[in-house]
Design a protein that fits this description.
Blueprint (H helix, E strand, L loop, with lengths): L8 H17 L7 H23 L4 H28 L4 H35 L1
Helix pairs in contact: 1-2, 1-4, 2-3, 3-4
């Protein structure tokens, strides 16, 4: 079951989040280049990448697995942002905005995954 990932709100939101992450990491200390900066950017990119990759899978079950991976990457981003907050890195307002955006995206991915899994279960029952 192919989904047009570019039309998915979760993909669009995750692309926006990715842009915000890159803007935020530009403000972090250079000593974090190979630690927090690298990790934040990698996990940030992983979210829309897994949504798009999963959208091309044959079944909703497979798509759901990629949504789970996107969701877990968002939890990694959240943790890394919380580390930044503890270290008092970057702009506090930008950091707060990022955390809100991550939490909102997590809810959306979770809900969408539940919907996909529910549709998958309905198909199994009808068969």
């Amino acid at each position: 079951m192919k989904h047009n990932f570019k039309r998915l709100i979760i993909w669009q939101d995750s692309m926006d989040l990715c842009d915000l992450i890159y803007s935020y990491t530009e403000t972090l200390p250079n000593k974090e280049k190979f630690n927090l900066i690298s990790q934040l950017e990698k996990c940030g990119v992983s979210i829309p990448s897994n949504i798009s990759e999963g959208s091309g899978k044959r079944t909703n079950k497979h798509f759901s697995e990629f949504l789970t991976t996107a969701l877990t990457s968002s939890y990694e981003v959240e943790t890394q942002l919380l580390i930044c907050a503890r270290r008092k890195y970057g702009n506090e307002k930008a950091l707060s905005n990022l955390l809100e955006r991550v939490n909102s995206l997590q809810s959306k991915i979770f809900s969408f995954r539940e919907k996909i899994e529910s549709e998958n279960n309905k198909v199994k029952i009808k068969s």
